Amino acid sequence: MKPPTTGPEVDSFYHLADVEMTHRRCRGLACFAAQAQDRAGWSAALAQWPPVYCLGKCYAAPASTETPQEPIVEAHCSDPIILDGVADNSMRSLADYRSRGGYSGLDRALAGPPDAVVREVEVSQLRGRGGAGFPAGKKWRAVYDAPGETKYVVANADEGDHGSYIDRFIMERTPHRLIEAMAISAHAIGALHGYIYLRKEYPAAYDSLLVALDEARAAGILGTHFDLEIVIGQGSYVCGEETSLLNSIEHRRPEVRARPPFPTAEGLFGKPTLVNNVETLASVPWIIRYGGAAYAARGFSKSRGTKAISMSSLFNRPGLYEVEFGVPLRTIIEDIGGGLRTTAPKAIIIGGPLAGLIHPREFDTPLGFEELQAVGGSVGHGGMVAFDQNTNMAELLAHVFTFGAIESCGKCTPCRLGSRRLESLFRKAANGERLDAAETAEVRALLDTLIQTSLCGHGSGLAVFANSMFAKYGEELSSCFA
Ligand SMILES: Cc1cc2nc3c(=O)[nH]c(=O)nc-3n(C[C@H](O)[C@H](O)[C@H](O)COP(=O)(O)O)c2cc1C
Ligand code: SF4
Questions:
Q1: 162: domain CATH number?
Q2: Is the distance from CB of 310 to CB of 163 less than 8 angstroms?
Q3: Whose CA is nearest to atom 22 of ligand 1?
Q4: Which domain holds residue 260?
Q5: 76 CA to middle of ligand 2, Å?
Q6: Which ligand number lies closest to the CA of residue 137?
Q7: Cβ neighbours of residue 70 under 8 Å, at least 6 residues apart?
Q8: Which residues line ligand 2 (CB under 6 A)?
Q9: Ligand 1 site: residues with CB under 6 angstroms?
Q10: DSSP readout, 358-409?
Q11: pTM metric for this prediction
């Protein structure tokens, strides 16, 4: 374990440097939604605990570091790819993973040339699960083609999007799947060293990965041609952004880097670097084992394969589910999640809080990158947070901008200052004070500026969220704004 901290100018960036992960309460979106439903959800003692953004226990929200429950984990597709072994917790050890065909993808990859592995990922049409849906094959090809002897592979295990606990359970219960995927990608792009950038909020995933890394080294899977190390994040949402993450590994102040150059050309320590999300990587062993065409045969439209969806505590069946792309949201919400346990849903957000809200009239939209984008939503990371009729939308707006202001990396002024100003205006509205015409115009102007000038998706995503709120819940908010 190598904490990415050096001195005060770097340490001061983080919220959890030198902090023990105990006695903290979660204030992510799922916990906000749960408290709107049940304001007595926090005992007075718990409310005194310092807050933290998203512990990945959204199925048990309102949650804390001490919340013991585990979620339901089920595959709702035939031949699961991501949750195989996760659902029944049956592949944690190397022996169990191997007995179910684990590492046969790596054997297959090593038996052929790197180019063939990259080709298989291209054929699969796998897209990044970290939020942007970027084609994985295109990224792998770019790093493969990049000149240079030294290259790196990095797993983004920062999973900061509220509502998401997918990567968490992949790592806790099938750590060897991530190691196998990274070893395959290292062979494909020519990397000798890799990093898993793991958030501090996931101590059980750390423990599980450590055991698996030891097992893999003892078995000669790691340690000869390729090795991996874990870097623990110190509490910063924006460190999930890939260039901020790379700065964090390099022990620099983790502000977002301007692009180009992209990490595929100049990434970690200036070398070509493949950064992929954990769930993206978790599909790779299956793709290499059964072929990219078999993967591409599943799913629909431009969204191929399967997707894990994690559902928040307001659902009757909060849990982690694997579905094929193309399934309507309504099926996930009503059949798999069992609908809400409180009232009719008012809204859901997937991949929040930097995404648009989805209104119940849009629930027949199929799960797909372009399809959700067309209704102003996002596949995002796949964490689905439900809001019921008890949710006050002005409060939700203020809550998201508090998060936005706290987590802004500060690199660009509109996000650093604009998110703070918007937070105070939205807080005023949430407190029942109507914003006058000048303040309402200021809100509009600041949101436009965030969309147009933000260096990364943090600033622009906040504005997307607010704009979707105004577009879909404008009537409820009309008393707050001129
Ligand atoms: C503010 C911000 C936070 C992000 N957080 C995460 C994260 O926690 N996990 C993640 O995998 N990607 C996150 N991303 C996306 C990464 O920058 C990057 O696109 C991703 O790791 C690439 O992997 P993929 O192509 O497999 O999705 C974030 C992006 C932004 C703008
Ligand atoms: S948009 Fe915000 S988080 Fe992103 S680079 Fe600018 S200041 Fe940093």
A1: 3.40.50.11540
A2: yes
A3: 276
A4: 79-296
A5: 37
A6: 1
A7: none
A8: 238, 256, 408-412, 415-416, 454-456, 458-459
A9: 128-132, 134, 156, 158-160, 238, 240-242, 275-277, 280, 456-458
A10: B-GGGTTSBS-HHHHHHTT---TTSEEEEEETT--HHHHHHHHHHHHHHH--
A11: 0.96
User: Closest Cα to atom 23, ligand 1: which residue?
Assistant: 276
Establish if 104 belongs to a structural domain. Answer: yes
Both tokens of 39, joined, read 């304001």
* Mutate-to-test residue for ligand 2 from 245, 248, 256, highest number of ligand atoms within 8 A of CB: 256
Name the residue with tokens 């191929």: 304
pLDDT tens across the length of the chain (482 residues): 444 556 778 888 898 888 888 889 888 899 888 876 555 556 667 778 888 888 999 898 888 898 888 999 999 999 999 999 999 999 999 999 999 999 999 999 999 999 999 999 999 999 999 988 999 999 999 999 999 999 999 999 999 999 999 999 999 999 999 999 999 999 999 999 999 999 999 999 999 999 999 999 999 999 998 999 999 999 899 999 999 999 999 999 999 999 999 999 999 999 999 999 999 999 999 999 999 999 999 999 999 999 999 999 999 999 999 999 999 999 999 999 999 999 999 999 998 789 999 999 999 999 999 999 999 999 999 999 999 999 999 999 999 999 999 999 999 999 999 999 999 999 999 999 999 999 999 999 999 999 999 999 999 999 999 999 999 999 999 999 88
**C-alpha count within 13 angstroms, C-beta hemisphere, residue 421:** 19
Give the count of domains, the chain: 1
Report whether 443 contacts 422 (CB < 8 A): yes
Where is 310: in which H helix or E strand? strand 306-311
Q: How far is the CA of 130 from the centre of ligand 1 (A)?
A: 4
| 381 located within any domain | no
Say how many Å lie between the CA of residue 413 and the centre of ligand 2: 8
CB 449 within 8 A of CB 333: no
User: Is the distance from CB of 114 to CB of 190 less than 8 angstroms?
Assistant: yes
Residue 211 lies in a domain: yes
- Amino acid making up residue 90: S
Are 63 and 32 in contact by the 8 Å Cβ rule? The answer is no
Tokens of 350: 């997937």
What is the number of the ligand 2 atom nearest to the C-alpha of 416? 7
| Residue 230 falls inside a structural domain | yes
C-beta separation of 93 from 272 below 8 A: no
